[in-house]
Write a structure and sequence with these properties.
69 residues; mainly alpha
Length: 69
């Protein structure tokens, strides 16, 4: 049980990254719908993967920043 508590940061990071990727994919789909352009599944997958990696990097950078007292 202690291992699950120690790895809770990992699950939080993955959840945040998945949520950010879903939001980015939805925004890209809405922008393409408004512009009346077709958005392929491969392009949507690339956008989702890039957003996922970007969100993980952002969480890591934010976690390294010390909190002010």
């Amino acid at each position: 049980m202690k291992i699950l508590h120690e790895l809770s940061w990992l699950w939080e990071t993955l959840g945040i990254a998945l949520l950010a990727a879903a939001v980015c994919m939805a925004c890209a789909a809405l922008i393409c719908k408004v512009a009346k352009k077709n958005l392929g599944k491969k392009v949507l997958a690339v956008i989702g993967a890039a957003a996922f990696v970007g969100a993980i990097l952002a969480v890591i950078l934010i976690a390294r920043t010390p909190m002010p007292l």
